[in-house]
Design brief:
Blueprint (H helix, E strand, L loop, with lengths): L1 E3 L2 E3 L2 E2 L7 E3 H5 L14 E2 L5 E2 L1 E11 L2 E10 L5 E3 L1 H6 L3 E3 L4 E3 L4 E3 L4 H5 L2 E5 L3 E3 L3 E8 L8 E5 L8 E3 L2 E4 L5 E7 L5 E3 L4 E8 L14 H8 L7 H14 L14 E6 L18 H16 L3 E3 L6 E7 L5 E5 L2 H5 L11 H8 L17 E3 L8 E3 L5 E3 L5 H10 L1
Parallel strand pairs: 3-9, 4-8, 22-26, 24-27
Antiparallel strand pairs: 1-2, 1-7, 4-9, 5-6, 7-8, 10-11, 11-12, 13-15, 13-21, 14-20, 15-19, 16-18, 16-21, 17-19, 23-28, 24-25, 27-28
Length: about 400
């Protein structure tokens, strides 16, 4: 416990912090004669995330009977006050870890370790052997153990930045056996994790606030009031602006479930070199499902997603029940993938992407209607995606590759 401008304050001594920082709300409580100097300096927290610096203050820091003048930065941080290396060096302080004391020529202050901070943070380890290609981002399964006392956690960095890895901050459900860890390898070399190796850290989350989402219709007439509800326009201006907007870009919106769309920007290739065709037997389907499969196949053919085929390649279909009770038509392409040359499309540089967003205030997002079905498979490779339901049917004309989709989006 110390004082900042006579205000009592719990202080954290952080030898990893290069500067001393006071929390913004605490800085507001200081006496009015304290002057906030603007500063262009940026900072990062212990997880490597950027912190916005509001300014710089000259304050009086008091331990016992000794008072020290020092310049501190103001930022939105979790701790009320962080004493960094700049303060320790400038005023000649040393740390005695054996006696838990902070010493100077004027004072000997007893400090306390905060053990619960490190105990609550758990390590997330690799659930299997993992290889992350250069300049690529993937989601890998992680394991945290069974003796976890909290239900939700926040994934963070585990000192991997020095190795060129970025760990995305992610809210995860710890009741599952494995948790997703999003890792980006920004180097030019592949990064290998062995099973059991530490991927990231997981901190407890005590409260998760549920947010509601606004569902918008695909119809331009129904989209109009929702999109412009909060705009500073008169009702007449809102209606007129919406009508012009949706008339101009009418071909962008999907009007119904069969209006999927089609792109000519790229075509997906399936490079199997000289490997002979792979043909698997169809899986048995319950009699009640066969009619449903026939309906799905007819719909896909009518929407120009599949076409009849007599290909020597064949993969079995798999029916997956969705949450809403409908059926998702899937194909087991694992054996085909085993003989296909991997197409790992690198992520664009994040800093270049952020530069293109600089100076803009409004951002739009578009959700693709069955995005994978909008990308064509090259005609020479379509026979390789031949699927077998209970009866022989046809080949897919649409893409099912994540790398092809990333390539398309980066070209848009």
């Amino acid at each position: 416990m110390g004082h900042v401008n006579e205000l009592p304050c719990n202080m954290i001594i952080d030898t990893r912090a290069n500067v001393s920082i006071i929390r913004n709300d605490l800085a507001q409580k200081l006496k009015r004669e304290t002057y906030l100097e603007p500063t262009p300096r940026g900072a990062t927290d212990r997880d490597g995330e950027k912190i916005d610096i509001h300014g710089k203050l000259k304050v009086k820091i008091k331990f016992g009977d000794a008072t020290y003048q020092h310049a501190v930065y103001v930022a939105d941080i979790a701790d009320p006050f962080i004493l960094g290396l700049d303060f320790l060096k400038e005023h000649g302080f040393t740390l005695d870890f054996n006696k838990n004391e902070l010493r100077s020529i004027h004072e000997e202050v007893t400090i306390f370790k905060i053990e619960h901070r490190s105990e609550s943070i758990r390590q997330v380890t690799a659930n299997e052997n993992i290889t992350i290609p250069p300049r690529t981002e993937i989601i890998v399964p992680g394991y945290i153990g069974n003796d976890v006392s909290f239900n939700s956690g926040l994934i963070g960095s585990a000192e991997n930045k020095a190795n060129g890895l970025l760990i995305a901050s992610t809210l995860v459900d710890l009741s599952r056996k494995t948790i997703p860890v999003r890792i980006c390898n920004v180097t030019e070399k592949p990064r290998v994790f062995q099973k059991g190796e530490v991927l990231a850290t997981c901190s407890p989350v005590t409260c998760v606030c549920k947010s509601s989402s606004l569902l918008l219709s695909n119809s331009p007439q129904q989209l109009t009031p929702d999109l412009l509800e909060n705009a500073e326009l008169s009702p007449e201006q809102k209606k007129s602006s919406a009508e012009r907007l949706f008339q101009e870009f009418e071909d962008v919106f999907s009007r119904n479930s069969s209006d999927i769309g089609h792109t000519t920007v790229t075509q997906h290739r399936i490079d199997t070199a000289d490997h002979p065709p792979i043909k698997q037997h169809p899986r048995r389907l319950p009699f009640a499902k066969q009619e449903e499969v026939g309906t799905l196949l007819r719909e896909m053919q009518e929407n120009d997603i599949i076409e009849p085929s007599s290909s020597p390649w064949a993969s079995p279909i798999v029916l997956v029940r969705k949450k809403d009770g409908s059926t998702r038509f899937c194909v087991d392409y694992r054996k085909l993938n085993d003989v296909t040359k991997k197409d790992s499309y690198p992520l664009p540089r994040i800093d270049d992407t952020l530069d293109t967003l600089s100076g803009h205030k409004w951002f739009s997002t578009l959700d693709l209607k069955s995005g994978y079905w909008q990308v064509e498979i090259h005609p020479e490779d379509r026979e390789k995606q031949h699927s077998l339901p209970a009866k022989d049917y046809g080949s897919s004309k649409s893409c099912r590759s994540g790398s092809a989709m990333r390539q398309l989006l980066s070209s848009a």
